[in-house]
Amino acid sequence: MKLQQLRYLVAIADNNLSITAAAESLYTSQPGISKQLRLLEDELKVTIFERSGKQLACVTHIGEEIIRKARNVLQEVNNIKQLTSDVMGEDTGSFTIATTQTQAQYVLPQVFLNFHKQYPQLKIDLQQGTTAQITELLQTRKIDFAIASGNEEFGADIVKIPCYQWDRTLLFPQDHPLGDLRKIGLSDLVKYPIVTYEMKAKSESSLIQACRQAKLNPNIVLTARDANVIKTYVRSGFGVGIIASMAHDPKLDRDLISYSTKDILPRCTTWIAFSKNLFLRKYMKDFIKLFAPHIAEEEFNQYLQRNKFSSVDLVNQLESQENSKLPMHRMWHI
């Protein structure tokens, strides 16, 4: 078994089982990858991919586990390189983070500014997407850190650290009927069309869950990733907007009425996540300190150990208990 074969294997998995695309991504030949794949399957005496003619159709059950371990091996190889760089005090290269539009625009700018002052030679590669897209990037080791919100379950290979909580804000025009109410309830909100963030699946949305529990049916007429896009459609009279509280600017949005959802919808938790096999460079630890300064080193180490040795259910239970102790976004320096 060769490292090259493992790289080919992971590249195939990351390119929708296309050997041609995998070859292009690695700047090598398609026949070369096909040959190495056959040699690897022969050596292991298993079928990693089911075939349909000359095409790869799907990954076998054992193939999924082999690919997962191959990612871990390649991660450890990279960790050795990172270790030597850390010992030599080299703070160059690229630090890759994937996050949502809300975090990128409203939370991270000052953090990145402070981080850049500390590590001016380090390039920050910031990628944006939905929580689902960010999760896929994290699980396929294409990024170092993921920062997002939601109740994602990553499994034992990912360390997930809750950092802070935030409420959502309702936005609607000055002449909207909701403006006549002293207190807005969920039953009042669902009477009107709703414009909110893109959802991976309605069943996973806390808004949908809250409405289902109250036996209400929300009319979500438009979803978008960008809070500014949501505001645009609210201003056009498309519906009532629901955005993250940090995306609301009292000055710029003074033409709209804002209303906190703290008594209507559950609070959201923003977390930072990374592979448990990732070698944490000094600059990575310093970034976490800048992003979540309230997390003490002892607590941070407990999260690392907990994710390594505890079951997924126990980790989720402990996170749920600790979320209530997290600071609100507006309560600290960001």
Labels describing this entry:
5-stranded mixed sheet, D-Maltodextrin-Binding Protein, domain 2, 3 domains, Arc Repressor Mutant, subunit A, globular, alpha/beta, 334 residues
Please explain how this structure is put together:
- It is a single chain.
- Helix content is 43%, strand content 21%.
- By secondary structure, the protein is an alpha/beta fold.
- The chain folds into 3 domains: 3-83, Orthogonal Bundle (Arc Repressor Mutant, subunit A), CATH 1.10.10.10; 91-165 and 268-331, 3-Layer(aba) Sandwich (D-Maltodextrin-Binding Protein, domain 2); 168-260, Periplasmic binding protein-like II (D-Maltodextrin-Binding Protein, domain 2, 3-Layer(aba) Sandwich).
- Helix 1 (3-14) packs across helix 3.
- It starts with a helix and ends in an 11-residue tail after the last helix.
